[in-house]
Amino acid sequence: MSNHSRIVTPGPGRPRWVAPSTRSELVYLSWGSRDFSKSPIPEHHNPGWSYVVICSGTVRISQGPKERSLGSSECLLAGPGCSYGLRHAKGERCELLVWIFRSAPNHSPLGLGTDLFQTVTLDTETRRFVENLHAQTREEISRVRDFFEPSVIHIRELLDIQIMRSLHGPRKESVQDRRLTLAYDWMLNNLELNDPVRSLCDYLQISQSTLHRLFRDHYSMAPGAVHRRLRVQEAQRLIEEEGWQVKQAAYRLGYHHANDLSRALSRAVADETTSN
């Protein structure tokens, strides 16, 4: 088989885009449903670094006598020195997304040379993010004369980061875990607020009911109660470790009056005594 690189387009009518310029960083883009039993992609070398994401179904990747299946949420990365073909058995179909970029990835281990052939499984959240990146790329191809190149380079950078994260294994944190981490850190940096819930919802871009459910499930407390506890703990630290007066700590932490902090400290001591 010849090592001459070429783009092999899908069957008639299938959505695709080929760069009008030989200098464009984005060489080729395609998307949508495929039936490679009717229009198989023969083994060939693409003129760049290929990213093939399977959104649903499966596809068979051929490399000489070898063949393997790529299933939903899997991604194939192939350098220009790596030949491969795509095919289906009768009745098989898939939905896929394809990018071909002219230059090599900037990040190891994605940039290991032109013979790169790597598959990686994307979790649901990552796959949706990648699907959105492809949608953004499709939007950009209608603006080839309007900052197209820097936009494509930026999208490719985000795509590579998602794949790098996936190569390091599945995400260990759920969306809820990350929201809780952000919420907790936000509270620590906004202890002076007397009504934090609305501002925290705005920060996380979630509803108050979602925020309350999140805190009830994790802390068995309302978010306002968690914020008040953190506020009192910081007041105790300032008074006991930093030597602040109650009035100073109350002013620093947004209490209306020093007596408000005194009462909060007394309740905290009483609660601790009761729990012990």
Automatic annotation (TrEMBL):
Pfam families: HTH_18. This is Transcriptional activator FtrA. It comes from the Bacteria. One of its GO terms (molecular function) is DNA-binding transcription factor activity. InterPro entries: AraC_XylS_family_regulators, Homeodomain-like_sf, HTH_AraC, RmlC_Cupin_sf. It comes from Novipirellula herctigrandis. Keywords: DNA-binding, Transcription, Transcription regulation. Residues 181-276 form the HTH araC/xylS-type domain. Gene3D superfamilies: Homeodomain-like.
